[in-house]
Write the structure tokens for this entry.
Amino acid sequence: MANYQNLLVAIDPSQDDQPALRRAVYIVQRNGGRIKAFLSIYDLSYEMTTLLSPEERNAMRKSVISQRVAWIKQQAHYYLESGIDIEIKVVWHNRPYEAIIQEVITGNHDLLLKMAHQHSKLESIIFTPLDWHLLRKCPCPVWMVKDQVWPENGAAVVAVNLSHEEAYHSELNLKLVHETQDLAKRIVKEPLIHLVSAYPVAPLNIATEIPDFDPNVYNQALRGQHLVAMKELRQKFCIDEQHTHVREGVPERVIPETCDELNAGVVVLGILGRTGLSAAFLGNTAEHVIDKLKCDLLAIKPDGFICPINVVTE
């Protein structure tokens, strides 16, 4: 159930405006819950000040943290004055993604929100290394927020994998649709949810390598399998056929194009969180899709996901 009640907002220290905090407030005003505005800061120059004693360096760090807390309060003053429950926490840590994930775990947060930067020319979202670490490793859903007003009548687009190559795809599809429906009903008066799936076409050279192979028959059969699987999925959630889309092509092209056509406010994707050699050899399809999105992204991990970050207890 996507009853997000304990939200963590990763504050962007380079911005005087915080779209992720706005989105969190939007959710809390409609769904209830509380917000923690979190910032991890680090300046090596304070650690290298050898002329100062450890006590003096610690005092300097505390002073910087206090300044940042005051800055965040100023950023959130309108929400605080209106009665929104926002806790502010600033920590000194040299790896922001580890600090954020550790806070997610220790604070039992059920949703992480962070601003995603936008490319000025292509209008697509640019993801930083910090974003990628969070998308791959954070155990709770991650909402990457675009610095843009939510589109009027914006849809929630759920990208599903209907290939059924692995059993976990079916389970993850069910989780994605269920959580999207549940969240949409809580925060939107008239939720509009679309399902989209892409299927690959036969390689052009396969007909020359296998003379008896008919690529048209293959493509039609594959489309038919995806249509049957999509029908089965939409019927489980009472989604109208007009709100389902099975399209030929690679996901990194089909999904962003469909989101543009539908004026999507957010696309919901499943991310397996592969890292290391498994990511290098098996790839992360969702990550190729993400690079081309122009809307918000809600990334959800499958059940049983194991976070690779260890919690450090002080």
Observations:
- The chain has twelve helices and eleven strands.
- The longest helix spans residues 54-75.
- Residues 276-283 have pLDDT under 50 and may be disordered.
